[in-house]
Design goal:
The chain has 20 helices and eleven strands. The protein is an alpha+beta fold. The longest helix is centred in the middle third of the chain and has 32 residues. The chain is globular. It binds protoporphyrin IX containing FE. Protoporphyrin IX containing FE binds next to helix 15 and helix 20. Pfam families: p450. Its cofactor is heme. It comes from Didymodactylos carnosus.
Length: 538
């Protein structure tokens, strides 16, 4: 190690005081001075060159150790799993896809009383918050809206759209986009899309009934078609044909690369990443994704400008095009928002639906109640489309969707960067600190959810809602200023899909919840396929 060569031998597991750091710095400075004097004597140009290159590296490393000492001291009161010098907690991770989420959940459960813990990513701390109490430092703040570093890795695809942007840019965009999610015309168009695509998906299951199948790829294709048409006004036909775009998004090629990059820090700098084959593949996929959305946006803009938009169905894109001049949006601005909807609105919903199907298959009593509710609403009509009125009557289905999102949230954690010093349940969090809000652990707090691991949709019935009355005890869509803008869209979509499926089929599975290994890969995924058998009801 460079530090050892310079005689810098402190074990970093021991917190260093500032005085120690300064004395070490002095020592290194003296050594450097000595080296410079030596180099003068030798008047060797390569040697001076090496010194010039090494000095900023040494200063950087010393600065890191100085910060490490400050973090160690500041987070003394926050528990963490056992650390190893320089590695921090990295030695506890394996190449198994589920190892990171497993470590987070096991640590959260061990330190539930303390309401947070620290994970040391080598010498860098991540403070993980696991208790609903105190979350107002992020959820009720209009200032604490900056996302953590990891989100930078989706920026090559999404640029700085709504998910990744911050400050005034985020505020302006959120103001422009929010009304679209409450617009009655748009919601009506979306309802037609949900019905059509859910029906296509269900009919694909017809030929596969009576045998265990992995429903995920079918559901992912369906949710991709839905968001594509809702966002851009054009379906990408993921359920009926193959295309480069669908392969890149639905088969998760782009997502896999982003996840791989997240777990390999030496690939974080862009210039290094591009040198690896995976970096070049990433570029290729980005071109496919960007070309696809850019072409659709340009076509739609031309029709829009020429008043030739014959489609009665409105898309998010139309509301952006309509505001283009007033809000001074460029085509690139519009594209980053459309790409963001494609990213956020497809896999999150697919994961939620897949987990909901699994939990319904596991609990015949719950499934019976769902069938009863659906029979009451549709009687024997297996084909008619769901209306808004139908959806309003699906109260029990809503409880089932919520309980699924509680136990198996599509987004198990979210990241923030503290903008100023904060205090969370008595623990100090320094400005600039990366914090994870561990939604999955927050949802398992027995204080708000008795028998937290039990799948019990009844806890969301209005008469029982006092049990989880804390504002931030149930936050699958995050909460506060920076919550999920697509929450209502997603709930309606889930209701249409599940009621269409359950009108025709019953679901069973031979797997148990303990068999399912879960990985955090941008969203939460089952490491191995979940098999469900669909049986025609009549
Ligand atoms: C079950 C489905 C969904 C779940 C569980 C979910 C969950 C979330 C969560 C937890 C966040 C906060 C992310 C963070 O702070 O880092 C978020 C943000 C967001 N979601 Fe969703 N989401 C879902 C569906 C959707 C859909 C269908 C859309 C689009 C139509 C969408 C669009 C967005 C956008 C644009 C953001 C960023 C909002 C902002 O920062 O202002 N989501 N979502």
């Amino acid at each position: 190690m460079l530090s050892h060569k310079l005689g810098f031998t402190n074990e970093i597991s021991e917190p260093m005081t500032l005085a120690e750091i300064y004395s070490q710095t002095l020592l290194v400075d003296l050594k450097l001075c000595h080296l410079v004097q030596e180099s003068k004597k030798m008047i060797s140009f390569p040697f001076v060159g090496i010194i010039i290159i090494l000095t900023p590296i040494v200063v950087y490393i010393l600065n890191l150790f100085r910060k490490h000492a400050i973090w160690k001291k500041a987070y003394e009161s926050i528990p963490s799993p056992p650390c190893v010098p320089l590695m921090g907690n990295l030695h506890l991770l394996s190449s198994e896809r589920d190892s990171f989420l497993r470590l987070l959940m096991a640590t959260a459960s061990k330190y539930r009383e303390q309401s947070c813990f620290c994970i040391w990513y080598s010498i860098w701390p991540i403070v993980v918050l696991t208790n609903a109490d105190g979350l107002e430092i992020f959820f009720s703040s209009t200032k604490e809206i900056t996302k953590s570093f990891e989100y930078k890795l989706v920026e090559p695809w999404l640029k700085t759209g709504l998910l990744t942007s911050k400050g005034n840019k985020w505020r302006t965009r959120r103001r422009i986009l929010t009304p679209s999610f409450h617009d009655a015309n748009l919601l009506q168009s979306f309802l037609i899309i949900f019905n059509e695509q859910s029906r296509i998906c269900t009919s694909r299951f017809e030929t596969l009934s009576e045998q265990p199948i992995d429903m995920y790829p079918f559901i992912a294709a369906c949710t991709l078609d839905i968001i594509c048409e809702a966002a851009m006004g054009t379906s990408c036909q993921a359920q009926v044909e193959k295309s480069e775009y669908v392969e890149a998004v639905a088969r998760y090629q782009i997502g896999d690369i982003i996840v791989q990059r997240m777990t390999t820090p030496w690939m974080w700098p862009n210039f290094l990443f591009k040198l690896f084959p995976i970096g070049r593949e990433h570029e290729k996929l980005l071109k496919i994704l960007h070309d696809f959305s850019r072409n659709i946006i340009n076509n739609r803009a031309q029709q829009f400008g020429g008043n030739q938009l014959h489609s009665k169905r409105m898309a998010f894109l139309d509301t952006l095009l309509a505001k283009m001049h007033d809000e001074q949006l460029t085509m690139e601005d519009i594209q980053e928002e459309v790409d963001t909807f494609m990213f956020e609105g497809h896999d999150t919903t697919a994961a939620a639906l897949n987990f909901a199907c699994f939990l319904i298959a596991l609990h015949p009593d719950v499934q019976q109640k769902l069938h009863d509710e659906i029979n009451r609403i549709f009687q024997d009509d297996l084909e008619r489309a769901c209306s808004m009125d139908d959806l309003k009557q699906m109260n029990y289905l809503e409880c089932v969707i919520k309980e699924s999102l509680r136990l198996l949230p599509s987004v198990p954690s979210i990241g923030r960067e503290a903008q100023e010093d904060l205090t969370y349940n008595g623990h100090k969090i320094l400005a600039g600190q990366t914090c994870y809000i561990l939604i999955k652990a927050i949802h398992l707090d027995p204080k708000y959810f008795p028998e937290p691991n039990k799948f019990n949709p009844d806890r969301f019935l209005p008469e029982n809602s006092a049990q989880h009355s804390h504002h931030f005890a149930f936050v699958p869509f995050s909460a506060g200023t920076r919550n999920c803008i697509g929450q209502r869209f997603a709930m309606l979509e889930e209701k249409v899909f599940l009621s269409t499926l359950l009108r025709k089929f019953s679901l069973t599975t031979t797997q148990t919840i303990e068999d399912i290994r879960l990985a955090e890969e941008i969203i939460m995924r089952a490491v191995d396929p979940i098999y469900i058998t669909l049986k025609r009801r009549r």
